Amino acid sequence: xxSPSKIRKAVIPVAGFGTRVLPATKSIPKELLTVVDRPLIxxxxxxxxxxxxxxxxxxxxxxxxAIEDYFDHQVELESALQAKNKxxxxxxxxxxxxxxxxxxxxxxxxxxxxxxxxxxxxxxVGDEPFAVLLPDVIVKGEKGCLKQMVDKYExxxxxxxxxxxxxxxxNKYGIIAPKGDxxxxxxxxxxxxxxxxxxxxxxxxxxxxxxxxxxxxFGILANTGKGAGGEIQLTDAMAELMNxxxxxxxxxxxxxxxxxxxxGFVKANIAFAMGRDEFASDLxxxxxxxx
Length: 291
Ligand code: G1P
Known about the structure:
CATH class: Alpha Beta
Largest sheet: 5 strands, mixed, barrel
Number of domains: 1
Bound molecules: 1-O-phosphono-alpha-D-glucopyranose
CATH topology: Spore Coat Polysaccharide Biosynthesis Protein SpsA, Chain A
């Protein structure tokens, strides 16, 4: 097993239909819907870059080509902004251009599940540990969630970020079984289960969408059968990998927003706008008068 200590690559699965936010996603990838003034996916890519990620593997699908364009140069636009000396917006726009050779796009041709999507990145990731960021979830905080995980990473281990969810919602997530009483920010686990029935869940600690995994997970995913919802689940492959490798869950500082749902999207827009000096005061006054 190769286990360098640096996490250089991240996989971001972006093939989903975005059915929970239809009709907005009928012809626009969900990942390009905006939170304040930038697409959802930009927040996730920025989180990856803050954590030191050098290469991002996007697992895309049909109808997602606009994501690839978003992370490339837009030569005419850039020239026009420069010619008009619109330096601030030019610089902001350039932040979305990923370095040459610093990203790859591969397609998940059929919606067979998150585990299958990650497996589609196997050849590009190769034999090194890697991060996974699910782009429905964006995290607001001082330090990015993935950076906090990288800081806790030990060579050869697997880490997943978890957070508490209301007990009645455990059937919407992957849920971990902690060993012991799950105190502290680094939690030992005895297992994990994808979308358990509410009365069978081993805890209310949900897998929130950030992972650091060892490449051996790919070999397991190749043989993982359908699980919850009839899909190939990453959680099932991780549960198997736990038999052979160290695995722990971490809590993190920050506020997560699930933009996979309409209400979550609206809340994310308000929360991130409130975090911006140019909007906070006016928005606060408006919300007070509106409600
Ligand atoms: C996926 C994962 C699940 C995780 C969730 C977080 O589920 O399979 O373990 O808790 O993301 O958002 P999905 O939301 O794709 O059904």
